[in-house]
Predict the 3D structure of the following.
Amino acid sequence: MIECSHLPQLPRPEPRPTAATCPECEAAGSHPVQLRLCLECGHVGCCDSSPYRHATGHFEETGHAVMRSFEPGQSWRWCYVDKHIV
């Protein structure tokens, strides 16, 4: 795994999820494929395989660079700025 400059800036402990699923998908009547958790604010969004790509949209709107998988048994993280798993 590659380290990135955004990791030291993340809150510790990681933020609590703001929802159990993608609220934007729920509002749109869509179903997320996989969920992602913003490690800066706790926003839960759907992955890029989902129709609306809300996790990426959250990054584009806020600049919050690092998210992790919010799927059971997964803990990998992705940095949108550095474009790699961290």
In short: The chain has one domain: 7-85. Helices lie at 23-28, 54-62.
